[in-house]
Design a protein that fits this description.
- The protein is of the alpha+beta class.
- It is 37% helix and 10% strand.
- The protein has 5 helices and 4 strands, in the order ββββααααα.
- The strands form 2 sheets. It has a two-stranded antiparallel ribbon with strand order 1-2. Strands 3-4 form a two-stranded antiparallel sheet.
- Helix 3 packs across helix 4.
- The protein is elongated, with a radius of gyration of 21 Å.
- The N terminus is likely disordered.
């Protein structure tokens, strides 16, 4: 059976019984994007986002030269903490702590995660979002800052760029 692969469902009309029960009435339904209005597509990430609400312009940043230190790990914890504890972030933060103690060699994934979360924190602050808070439009803010940060570091949107296999499958 063929499947329609058009631009996607954005709105529709459905019919429901009217109040008298003798007829039907139309109801117009329009979907909205949880990420709000967008005005650009990331060159590297391929993600839609709003450049005016991303916490500043795209910068040419380099994750490869990053050195993981206590102040940076504390910033990562501060920023990721606003979203509540998640297994993937917990694994990555535990890795950063082990790197600080000399118990683990740093990988490119660790550096990308570390620099990404710190830069995302800066973007949140640039938007006036207080530390330890999630704004009412949290999904929109996250999408815009996350995507802009991927663009800062010229990264695609593949989660394996920021998370190790163990972080993505912590129960295994």
């Amino acid at each position: 059976m063929p499947i329609y692969e058009g631009a996607g469902l954005q709105d529709f009309i459905y019919w429901q019984p009217d109040a008298t029960g003798t007829g039907v009435e139309p109801v117009y339904v329009m979907f909205s994007d949880i990420y709000g209005e967008t005005n650009a597509k990331g060159k590297y990430s391929g993600r839609d986002y709003n450049t005016d609400k991303a916490g500043g312009p795209i910068q040419n940043l380099d994750w490869k030269s990053a050195t993981i230190d206590r102040a940076g790990v504390d910033k990562v914890k501060l920023h990721t903490g606003r979203f509540g504890e998640s297994p993937d972030n917990k694994v990555m933060i535990d890795r950063l702590e082990k790197i600080l103690k000399g118990e683990l060699q740093v990988t490119d994934t660790d550096k990308r995660f570390y620099t990404h979360e710190i830069r995302e924190l800066e973007r949140y602050r640039n938007l006036g979002v207080k530390d330890d808070t999630v704004p009412e439009n949290g999904d929109e803010v996250w999408n815009n800052t996350h995507t802009a940060t991927l663009e800062d570091y010229k990264l695609g949107s593949d989660e394996t760029l920021l998370y190790t296999p163990e972080a993505l499958n912590p129960q295994k």
